[in-house]
Amino acid sequence: MAATAAGERPGAAHASGAARPGAAAGSAAPAPPVVLYAAETLFGARTGVGRAALEVARAVLRQPGLAELHPVMGGRLLPGALLDSPPEAPVPAGPARRPWRDRVAALPLAGGLALSASGALTRRSMHRAAAAALGGSGGGPAVLHEPNMLPRPFDAGPTVSVVNDLSWRRHPDMHPADRLAWIDRHLPRALRQVSRWVAISGFTADEAAAEFGVDRARVAVVPLAAGDAFRPVDADGAAPVLAAHGLADGGYVLAVGTLEPRKNLERLAVAHALLPAALRRRAPLVLAGGIGWGGVEAGPALARALAAGDARPLGRVDDAALAALYARAAAVAYPSLYEGFGLPVLEAMACGAPLVHSATTAVAETAGDAGLAVDPLDPEAIAAGLAAVLEDAALAARLRAAGPAHAAGFSWAETARRIAAVWREAAAA
After folding, report:
1. What is d(CA 392, CA 396) in angstroms, rounded to the nearest whole number?
2. Does the domain at residues 13-225+412-428 carry the CATH identifier 3.30.70?
3. Angle at 33 between CA 120 and CA 411, to 5 degrees
4. Which residues pair with 145 in a beta bridge?
5. pLDDT surpassing 80 at residue 271
6. What is the reported pTM?
7. Are the C-beta atoms of residues 423 and 35 closer than 8 Å to each other?
8. Strand pairing partners for 353?
């Protein structure tokens, strides 16, 4: 991976040796765009947005000519080495942190989405960051890329912003009140500032265009992808992970995601409880994911399942362990009520897991016809889907074969190319 080399400006992370903006006429190819890459989501334990932001940046850097990236936080350019950390790794804590990490980790965050600061101060600091990124070449402009919808104030060039979902609008009861207030406060400015939008599914693009009142042509659909770690794992390869969690090969139903209300774990627990007792014992419900707003024990059915041992929380696991858990599950259940994409859908399929998933929102779009779709509002339908996969070996085998083939149609390299095309369009406009 390219990172900051000796003699480069602080923060530069290059994917190309191409000429900079403002290079002499006659260059063989146009210079790649200079991009200020908002880095707030790369800090702390990374959930879907942070993981996607890091995967996109790393994929850009692997492909010469796409862009020159400058991670930026609070108007400060950060070392390009930030982009070398593993996708699931949090920023190290304690004395082992590098000095620059100590400085940026101390900056205040608001709502987990972006820095809270005076607009005028932020604009000035972002102006300085853009000037440093451009190196006084007179070229440009620099493009600000915001992976999480609401960018910090910036008027030194165009802004490209990613819409991951509109759950805050469609299901406000599933978000903390302070998060909703923060979004409402900053959204009008973002709508004035953003030049181009990126949506991670066609479903989300249509929702964003309707909700924001923007021209659908300004919203590019750029799907996500499963990471390199997600691939089939044989029984021997998965054995240490299963042993560490006390699981039997093919002996559990796996649910993955931050444990919060919209992941629909309460109805999943009800559905699992509807299975015959022998089937529940053979395939207990296993929950992998960090605790989100609402907590893991959000409803009585899930609380009972946890108390009885019919459901087990594993907490957050790393990618290698998660791939093993996906690959050796009897079934993976993803009955989420609302998703802008549903990254665990692709991860499970890439690992060859038979998937039972929501037939609604972007989940169905992401899954295509490679999983078993069910109504996420109907516990009996979820239970029927689980029973079908657990009891019908031919169906499970068909889904195991279909998943990797479907997931192979998505790649971070293609995601990066398509986002870079949006950056070029924004810079040209």
Report:
1. 6
2. no
3. 110
4. 37, 160
5. yes
6. 0.84
7. yes
8. none
Instruction: Give residues with Cβ within 8 angstroms of 16, minimum separation 6.
Output: 32, 64, 65, 66, 67, 68
Q: Which amino acid is at 420?
A: A
Q: Which residue has the tokens 């101060």?
A: 121
Q: Label residue 295 left, alpha or beta by phi (over 0 means left) and psi (-120 to 50 means alpha).
A: left
Burial (CB count within 10 angstroms: exposed 0-12, middle 13-18, buried 19+), residue 301: buried
Distance CA 42, CA 191 (A): 23
Report whether 133 contacts 11 (CB < 8 A): yes
pLDDT at 93: 36
Domain boundaries, the chain: 13-225+412-428, 235-407
* Assigned token pair, 233: 């794992």
Share of the chain above pLDDT 70, in %: 82
Structure letter (DSSP) for residue 329: -
For residue 105, pLDDT over 90 is answered with no
Q: Which CATH class is domain 235-407?
A: alpha beta
Instruction: Name the nearest CA neighbour of 43 among 5, 4, 71.
Output: 71
- DSSP letter (8 states) at residue 34: E
Q: Which two tokens stand for residue 265?
A: 């774990």
Query: Residues 56, 3, 93, CA angle at the centre, nearest 5°?
Result: 80
Reply yes or no: is the peptide bond before residue 232 cis, omega within 30 of 0: no
CA atoms of 277 and 281, how far apart (whole Å): 6
Position 86 confidence tier, pLDDT thresholds 50, 70, 90:
low
pLDDT beyond 60 at 108: no
pLDDT digits (tens, 9 = 90+) for 273-314: 999 999 999 999 999 987 664 444 458 998 899 888 899 999
The answer to whether domain 13-225+412-428 and domain 235-407 are alike in fold is yes
